Amino acid sequence: MKADAPVALVTGASRGIGREIALAFAKDGFRLAINYSRSEDKAKELEKAVARLGSKPLLLKADVSKSKEVQTLVAEVMKNWGRIDVLVNNAGITRDRTILKMTDEEWEDVVRVNLNGAFWCLRDCSKAMIERKEGAIINISSIVAVRGSVGNANYAASKAGLIALTKSAAKELGRFNIRVNAVLPGFHLTDMGRAVWGKYEERIRSEHTLGRLTDIRELAQFVLFTAKQKSASGQVFNFESRVI
Ligand code: NAP
Predict the structure, then answer these.
(1) What is the pLDDT of residues 76-106, one digit of tens each?
(2) Strands 236-238 and 135-140
(3) 15: which of 22, 140, 168, 192 is 20 to 30 A away, CA to CA?
(4) Distance in angstroms (rounded) separating the CA atoms of residues 52 and 229
């Protein structure tokens, strides 16, 4: 691992899609900052997996929905490595309920993590990126942001907010050479995906143009490519084979 290797911070990297994205960056030679919130054991497993690749990641516990914790998270990366080249806003939760039954807490919890959390991270990381006039931010949104969905309006609205944030941030930060893009993953059988798989399997398969699920490693490679390319910003990349 080169001492001046670029630095990637991946939020919610302890499990699922975030873990896979984190591994892709580590394999590509990035110094990796692994954020997690509750799954310490899984985050430590990832730390070991990255160490086996020959680099020592930073393991950083922070609830991204809390602005103060995000400030500390970003400050820790800067204290250790003095730069942040890539932020992947991946941390996300669901609290599914139809609109008429949804509680204030279910709405607010999801918006706090998925949208506020991404904003705190984007704001603080872009301050670090501006100094070097270089950076890439990838917001992990969802196809439901553009299609709507029954039973998780809180989630769909938070992910739609992420798309508007992506486009606005790209316009504001482009002059500092910071690229901001959103990626819509396909359906993946992570803990989040498995929770609704039984209910939606048939529909997901039937709507998929290739009749199968998207490969999580290919998604991670796509996020890595999106971060490394220097031309596109403010875009929403649909890595999903359901047609919008
Ligand atoms: P997952 O398996 O449930 O993992 C969620 C990750 O987010 C975990 O690492 C979790 O960390 C972290 N997280 C949750 N709340 C957090 C908080 N307050 N602060 C920091 N980290 C937090 O979900 P996933 O399927 O991998 O989803 C990852 C992202 O992809 C999400 O944004 C999701 O909306 C999006 N997505 C998923 C799918 C899919 O099919 N799975 C499809 C489209 C979009 P801890 O366990 O440590 O708390």
Answers:
(1) 999 999 999 999 999 999 999 999 999 999 9
(2) unpaired
(3) 168
(4) 27
- 14 in contact with ligand 1, CB cutoff 6 A: yes
For residue 16 and ligand 1, the question of a CB distance below 6 A is answered with: yes
Q: Of 25, 107, 120, 155, which residue is the catalytic one?
A: 155
Taking only the tens place, the pLDDT of each residue in 187-235 is 999 999 999 988 888 888 889 999 888 899 999 999 999 999 999 999 9
The label of the residue with tokens 């809390």 reads 66
- Distance between CA atoms of 174 and 220, rounded to whole angstroms? 24
CATH architecture, domain defined by 7-238: 3-Layer(aba) Sandwich (3.40)
Task: Give pTM, 2 decimals.
Answer: 0.98
Backbone angles phi, psi at 134, to 5 degrees: -160, 130
* Three-state helix/strand/coil letters over 112-148: HHHHHHHHHHHHHHHHHHHHHCCEEEEEECCCHHHHC
**Closest ligand 1 atom to Cα of 13:** 9
Mapped onto helix, strand or coil, the DSSP state of residue 35 is strand
Which sequence spans correspond to the domains of the chain? Answer: 7-238
Q: Does 155 qualify as catalytic in the annotation? A: yes
Alpha carbons 133 and 127: distance in angstroms, whole number? 10
What is the C-alpha separation between 223 and 171, in angstroms, rounded? 20
Matching residue, tokens 């990626």: 183
Atom of ligand 1 nearest to the CA of 66: 18
Q: Which atom of ligand 1 is nearest to the CA of 14?
A: 9
Structure tokens given for 189: 């059988």
